[in-house]
Design a protein that fits this description.
The chain has helices spanning about 5-10, 15-20, 25-40, 55-60, 75-85, 120-130, 210-220, and strands spanning about 45-50, 65-70, 90, 105-110, 135-145, 155-160, 165-175, 180-190, 195-205, 220-225, 240-245. It is α/β, with parallel strands linked by helices. The chain starts with a helix and ends with a strand. The structure holds S-adenosylmethionine (SAM).
Amino acid sequence: MTSLSALYADLSGYYDRFCLDVDYAAQCDFANRVARTFGHSAGHAYLDLACGTGQHLAHMAARGYAGTGLDNSQAMLDQAALRCPDATWLCCDLAGFDTPGRFDLITCFLYSIHYSHPRAALQETLRRAFAALRPGGVLLFDLVDKAGIGTRDAVSHLTEGDARFTFRSGWRYAGSGDTLDLHVTIERSDSAGLQRWEDRHAMTAIGIEEARAALQTEGFEVTVLERDFAGLREWEGESFNVMMVAVKPA
Ligand SMILES: C[S@@+](CC[C@H](N)C(=O)[O-])C[C@H]1O[C@@H](n2cnc3c(N)ncnc32)[C@H](O)[C@@H]1O
């Protein structure tokens, strides 16, 4: 069993290939649209929380944003720095940054906000995001309601030279409480044998309305959108996967 940071350190060089299905350009078009529609601060100072290998930072730079990436894995930040040589980096926990009044837009994608665990740490992350925004700035993140946690694992495969990787991940939720268990298993096999990484990691379980209230507690004005990157559709109250748009009042 590896720790989460050891897992990301070992796999940072492969992470992008596991994410080939993620349409980062569409997510960044969406983030830019959200910032222009809901934000009032007009600037382009951008912070990506749990930035991983910097894909959002690169796409946002192409849209005129000056980026800062935060991640608690130095190995992931090293990959991100290769991709985004002009960006600024914060190697710390999601609940550990202290950059008051600097940003017009803060994002956190691929449900990474749930890594802020336990629930009090998530609240602290929201508090610090509020402080880090300029008046009129926007915090945007995707969220899955704890009532909608599926039971199926996502599985993907990757071949790299003579090595074959299998990546399996899924969340488990006991049905009560504020902890989700993330199960990740990665196997690498080649002629020399089999290597296996396994992680069981606690993440925060939260409901959409609970997240709205948590944001409002910090002073944000909140809109919930469908997680549909093609447009800007207000949440209809049915789906469990949403985009939380939180604006710091101007
Ligand atoms: C699933 S990846 C998502 C990366 C990126 N947002 C994307 O969409 O490709 C999650 C990232 O969160 C980072 N991470 C996990 N827990 C964290 C924490 N408590 N504080 C800061 N970063 C964290 C990991 O190192 C990893 O880079």
